[in-house]
């Protein structure tokens, strides 16, 4: 079960990513969505429509910040100018926790703007955990790191990806945003058992789960977030909930975005899987106690 210190004690059920094509619908209809996730960097601006809309959303909904620009795997250290801007937005949104990707993205001040996978080495665990600790202390709220999708593996790897994720989270004392679609995508591209990954993750650290769709090509799967969630990903989700308890669940849909209703209907499917998982967990707990 997730420890409340990784979510600031806030329990959330199903949410979706706040996206520009849905702004007018949400403001006009005020749909009964559990919560919204925002991409922090889209709102780290001075004024304008994005912040106006955000302020109106914040009057009605809980908003959780998700970032794409922290790059905790950067060997050059953490970018304090970025953290200062991030903290300003945290004060506005009152996000209960804040997530970003377990990746690197810049060298000597030049940004790649990509979520690049980190080599799974002990040295990278040390450096990444150091960066995350600094960021978490500076931001003064629980941080969660997300596993990224990847399309190849480093020859230098000294452990599996799931061991690396667990080592970093323990060493930095941060939470985990477990993206079960990313696990599935990487498992096909890098040929591992995705269930082994889900079974290994430290359940008490999982603050949030991402579900999403992807695109399948001849040799690789690409993490495109432009399709409904497929059954093997739902099965990983179900097992993650069975292990971690009722974790906040967020559907990402970032390209070829359909209507608000379509996205929300897809997100709500998680509730059936979640209920089945929690029922099984209860039965297992009862059986263990008997
Ligand atoms: Fe994700």
List keywords for this structure.
290 residues, alpha/beta, TIM Barrel, eight-stranded parallel β-barrel, two-stranded antiparallel sheet, 9 helices, 43% helix, 18% strand, globular, binds fe (ii) ion
How would you describe this structure to a colleague?
The longest helix is centred in the last third of the chain and has 30 residues, at 260-289. An eight-stranded parallel β-barrel has the order 1-2-3-4-7-8-9-12, surrounded by four helices. The chain has a single domain, classed as TIM Barrel (Alpha-Beta Barrel), CATH 3.20.20. The chain is of the alpha/beta class and 290 residues long. It has helices at residues 23-29, 49-60, 80-93, 122-139, 161-172, 180-190, 194-200, 231-244, 260-289, and strands at residues 14-17, 35-39, 63-66, 98-101, 104-107, 110-116, 143-146, 175-179, 206-212, 215-216, 221-222, 248-252. Bound molecules: fe (ii) ion (FE2). The site of fe (ii) ion has 5 residues, from loops.
């Amino acid at each position: 079960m997730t420890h409340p210190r990784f979510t600031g004690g806030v329990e959330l059920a199903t949410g979706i990513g706040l996206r520009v094509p849905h702004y007018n619908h949400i403001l006009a209809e005020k749909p009964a969505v559990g919560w919204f996730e925002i991409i922090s960097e889209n709102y780290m601006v001075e004024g304008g429509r994005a912040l106006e809309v955000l302020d109106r959303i914040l009057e009605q909904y809980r908003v959780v910040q998700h970032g794409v620009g922290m790059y905790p795997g950067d060997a050059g250290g953490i970018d304090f100018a970025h953290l200062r801007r991030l903290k300003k937005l945290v004060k506005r949104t009152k996000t209960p926790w804040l997530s970003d990707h377990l990746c690197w993205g810049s060298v000597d001040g030049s940004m790649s703007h990509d979520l690049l996978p980190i080599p799974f080495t002990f040295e990278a665990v040390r450096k990444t955990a150091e960066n995350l600790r600094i960021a978490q202390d500076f931001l003064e709220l629980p941080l969660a790191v997300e596993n990224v999708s990847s399309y190849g593996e480093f020859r230098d790897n000294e452990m599996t990806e799931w061991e690396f994720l667990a080592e970093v989270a323990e060493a930095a004392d941060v939470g985990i945003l477990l993206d079960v679609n990313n696990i599935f995508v990487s498992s096909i591209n890098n040929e591992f058992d995705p269930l082994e990954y889900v079974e290994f993750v430290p359940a008490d650290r999982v603050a949030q789960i991402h579900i999403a769709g992807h695109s399948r090509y001849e040799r690789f799967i690409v993490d495109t977030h432009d399709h409904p969630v497929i059954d093997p990903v739902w099965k990983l989700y179900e097992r993650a909930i069975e292990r971690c308890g009722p974790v906040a669940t967020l559907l990402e849909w970032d390209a070829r975005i359909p209507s608000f209703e379509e996205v929300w209907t897809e997100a709500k499917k998680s509730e059936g899987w979640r209920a089945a998982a929690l029922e099984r967990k209860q039965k297992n707990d009862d059986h263990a106690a008997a």
